[in-house]
Amino acid sequence: MPNAALEISGLSKSFDKPVVNALDLTIRSGEFYALLGPNGAGKTTILRMVAGLLRPDEGAISVFGIDARKDAIAAKKIIAWVSDEPMVYDRLTPLEYLEFVAGLWQIDATTAKARALDLLDWLGLAPHANALCGSFSKGMLQKVALAGALVHEPRLIILDEPLTGLDAGSARQVKDVLLNKVRGGVTVIMTTHILEVAERMAERIGVISNGRLIAEGSLAELRNRIGRGNTSLEEIFLDLVQTDAQGVAA
Ligand SMILES: Nc1ncnc2c1ncn2[C@@H]1O[C@H](COP(=O)(O)OP(=O)(O)OP(=O)(O)O)[C@@H](O)[C@H]1O
Q1: Predicted local confidence at residue 2, as pLDDT
Q2: For the whole model, what pTM was predicted?
Q3: Separation CA 232–CA 228 (nearest Å)
Q4: What would the mean pLDDT of 142-162 be, rounded to a whole number?
Q5: Backbone angles phi, psi at 213, to 5 degrees
Q6: Distances (CA, A) of 135 to 94, 121, 242
Q7: Where in this chain does the record put each ABC transporter domain (predicted)?
Q8: If you average pLDDT over residues 19-41, what whole number do you get?
Q9: Which 8-state DSSP code applies to residue 26?
């Protein structure tokens, strides 16, 4: 697809058993895409391969036309990876941390500071900009990690369960930042178990089960697919996953 942010084809990964099975997945440029699936379906494994943190057994990954397996550094420059386990240096303040990360990306100090202050402001961290991260709650650390992932202004933001554990105010700040990024043309892919978030925010939803994409589309398309007009995403999800499990067991 010419305007794809991400094109995955034939992607496979096994640990002691197959976890990702010949996956094909295309995310359009500028799209907000939610990846759903039961525990252990392979979502994190897929995203870790896209982010260049895990080597696929087979398959191709293209990020805005860059072969992410052959030219991992070029791909990483345009990707943000936000894990569900934030890694931030305890002995730095959020501002120092963001300036440090910006330095790794060779962003000049003035731009780095301006971006860092904007991100801290959007995420409600401005009052804590000069406190040590070691004193922060897990939710605050999650927001600092998100800010760190965005400081190089990536074109593709990949997030693994970004809202888990956040209070309502923090979740709203994170959602607003992501929606603003999408409005600015950035592509967002995130996993979530909060179906309401996928329902409200995502333009398209992909359902992963046993390492394969078993359904994909807008909420309306998924509803049509299971043949009921007013169904909630939760019912659609449970229906799809149960049907897939029956198929795998048969
Ligand atoms: N490094 C690893 N070594 C061995 N097995 C692994 C490794 N990483 C993941 N797995 C296994 O791969 C399977 C898929 O895990 P993955 O974390 O991708 O699922 P998930 O869909 O993200 O699940 P959840 O919704 O619970 O986060 C699981 O059975 C998991 O135990």
Answers
A1: 65
A2: 0.93
A3: 10
A4: 95
A5: -85, 110
A6: 11, 19, 43
A7: 6-235
A8: 95
A9: E
43 Cβ inside 6 Å of ligand 1: yes
What token pair was written down for 82?
A: 């936000």
- The residue to which tokens 């010419």 are assigned: 2
Mutate to test the pocket of ligand 1, among 19, 39, 82 (most ligand atoms within 8 A of CB): 19
Question: Does 211 sit in the ligand 1 pocket, CB within 6 Å?
Answer: no
DSSP state of 13: E
Closest residue by Cα to atom 28, ligand 1, is: 40
- Please enumerate, as own/partner, the contacts of 192-197 that have beta carbons within 8 Å and a separation of 24 or more: 192/34, 192/35, 192/36, 192/161, 192/162, 192/163, 193/36, 193/161, 193/164, 194/163, 194/164, 195/36, 195/232, 195/233, 195/234, 195/237, 196/233, 197/34, 197/163
- Cβ neighbors of 133 (< 8 A, separation 6 or more) are 88, 89, 90, 91, 92, 93, 94, 97, 140, 141, 144
Q: From the CA of 60, how far away is ligand 1's center (Å)?
A: 20
For residue 170 and ligand 1, the question of a CB distance below 6 A is answered with no
For ligand 1, atom 2, which residue shows the shortest CA distance? 15
**Residue with the nearest Cα to atom 29 of ligand 1?**
40
- CA distances to 4, 182, 248 from 32, rounded to whole Å, are 13, 7, 29
